[in-house]
Each structure stands twice: as structure tokens, then as C-alpha cells.
Amino acid sequence: MLIKGMSNIARIALRGWDAINKIDLSVRQIDRKLNEICSTLPNGHSVSYLGRDLCLVRTRWGGYVVVPSYNVDVAVGIIRDGVHEPWTTRLVQETLKLGDTYVNVGSNFGYYTSLGGLIVGNKGKVLSFEANPAVFAILLKTIMYAGIPDRTTVFNRAVFRETGEHFNFTFDYQFAGGGHLELNAIEQPCMGDPFWSKDSVPSILGHNGQWLPGKGIMNKFEAKTLALDDVIGEGPVDLLHCDVEAAEPYVITGAKTMIRNSPRLKIIFEWSSYSFDHGTDEYREAVNDMWTLLVSEGFSIRRLMPFLHADGAIELSERLTYAEFIAGEHGDYFAERSLQQ
């Protein structure tokens, strides 16, 4: 309503302000409606508590993963952000396609198993390997909640160069993503509460009460091994995705036949120069064997940069030399044949 006695300029200004308010109100209404719509879309991130320390997460890419709330490495990004390793997630999305065969070694709670199963569809195949029985039980739940048991074959085994080996496997429940074969028996097993609590915290503190992140509450079990060639044989496989805490050279050298019979194969694997620098001579020989195998099969290796560009694009390094590779920073690396056959 306009006030009597106001100047024409004042009346014009008031009308303009009233129009701005109406526009602002319309924008807010549109925003609310868009938020309502987005919350119903398949890629709407949400978390539901299942009980027994387990959460069901609807990821940002539309699949489902079951994770334990006590885990603070792999589960953190999934629960908090709806995505884990967004750059690697994008690489898997860009590499796999409908009908492909995906081998996920070191599946953990099943984040990438769920993602791969969603992409390849019921005409594709997923082979998922997880050595840790405590984590494997959760992986099974992910496969069921993700709705992909029809395309997924899952193994509670450690993938290695040979089948039938027996190794100690060590892990911390809080950092289960870092569980690994104990090739050198140096870590002492936990004798009490394996979870962070008032009773277990003293075991991960220094003499002055400082938390020592590298000191875990370690648990052990015996793991049996499988070589990929003894499970998959002649292939073909489209994507081998391997995250097994420095045991990647053993996994890859145990898959010679599969690699040679998979002309479209691409490989994503974790790597760190720390493993090479602090490993045994036998381990460094295994790394050399892996490199020799991949190069002889026409693969080039590049590092996946750990970030996304503003438009969501990923970035790979230039092709690495052996010297550059063994000095490489911790992260995921990508191997593909220079000329796809």
C-alpha cells in the first residue's frame, strides 16, 4: 500500500522494492521445490541406521553400501559425503560399461563392488575378493542391499601370486581399509577391547599421552590365498581393480593368463613408493616382475591425480617410466594398453 503525500520518486522506489520482494519470494519457493525434487532422486545421499553399528548409505551415484559406524577410514567419506575417493569413483564410472566383467580385489565393505555391479548390469559380471572375514560379512550385506547378487561372485580369500598359501592377516577395526597380509610378523595382536574405548585407548598413546595414529589396535587371523588365474583362468576381464595394501604386485603377477587373454583389460591399482623403499628384496623383485609383465603386454602406467576439476573431470599423469613409478606418491594408478587390441 502506498502512503499519501509520498513523492513520485518515493512511490516508484517502493513499488520496485515490493517487486524485488516478490521475486525473492518466488526464488525461495523454487529453491524449496527443487530441493524436494532432488531429495527424491536416485542419487540423493542418505544414511539409515540398521542396528548393530551398521549404516545403510545411499551414495551420490545412486547405489547402496553397508558400512560400520565404528570405521573411520573408508566409511567416513561414504557416510558423510556419499562418495569415497571421488576421483577413483569417476575413473571406474568412465572405464566400465554395461555388460563388462569387473574384478574387485580388496573389496572391503563393497563400495566399488556395488558401483561396478550397478554399471555392468545383470548382463555383466562382478568378481569380488575380500580376505577379512569381519569385513566380508558386511560385504555380503552390501551385495544384498545393492540388489546385485545375480551378477556378483564373492570370495573370502586373499588374492596372491599362488593359490593355497597361508598368511597372517592383520587389521584394526577402526581402520579396516588398511588391513593387510602380514608378510613380516612385526605387529602384536590386541589382547583386549579391539574398539576405541576407555580401556583400549592407552594402547595407542605415547608416553606423554599423545595419540599415535600409526599405532593400531591390531587383530589377526590366518588368511588363505587364491591366484586370479586359478579362479578366472582365460578371462576375458574388462577392469581389474586392486586395493590390497602393497600386495598389488603379487595379485597382478598371479593373473598372467587372465591379462594375456583380456585384450580390453584396464587395471586400477594402489601404489606407494614407501612399500618399495621399505619392503624386502623379494618384494622389490615382485614389483619388477609386475612392471615387466605389464610392459611386455603393451601397458602404460599413469598416476590418477587425487582431485576433481571444477567440471568433475579427472586427470591422469603422463606415462611413467619405471624410475618414476617406483618413486611415486601414494595413490591409485591406471594401467591400459597403449593401443587397444
Short description:
This protein is of the alpha/beta class and 341 residues long.
Please provide a written account of the structure.
Among the domains are: 34 residues; 198 residues, Rossmann fold (3-Layer(aba) Sandwich), CATH 3.40.50.150. Helix content is 34%, strand content 21%. It contains eleven helices and 14 strands. A hairpin with a 2-residue loop joins strand 1 and strand 2. The longest helix is centred in the first third of the chain and has 33 residues. The mean pLDDT is 88.
- Gyration radius, to the nearest Å? 25 Å
Shape annotation: globular
CATH superfamily of the domain at 84-166 and 223-337: Vaccinia Virus protein VP39
Strand content: 15-25%
Look at the helices and sheets and give the structural class: alpha/beta
CATH A-level architecture of the domain at 84-166 and 223-337: 3-Layer(aba) Sandwich
Strand order of the largest sheet: 6-5-4-11-12-14-13
Low-confidence runs (pLDDT<50, min 5 residues)? none
Any idea of the CATH class of the domain at 84-166 and 223-337?
Alpha Beta
Annotated CATH topology of the domain at 84-166 and 223-337: Rossmann fold
Short key terms for the protein model shown above:
341 residues; Rossmann fold; single chain; seven-stranded mixed sheet; alpha/beta; 21% strand
Helices and strands in order:
Layout: H1 8-40, E1 46-51, E2 54-58, E3 64-68, H2 74-81, H3 86-95, E4 101-105, H4 111-120, E5 125-129, H5 133-145, E6 152-155, E7 158-159, E8 166-172, E9 180-182, E10 218-226, H6 228-231, E11 239-242, H7 248-253, H8 256-260, E12 266-271, H9 273-278, H10 281-296, E13 299-303, H11 322-326, E14 331-337
Parallel strand pairs: 4-5, 4-11, 5-6, 7-10, 11-12
Antiparallel strand pairs: 1-2, 2-3, 8-9, 8-10, 12-14, 13-14
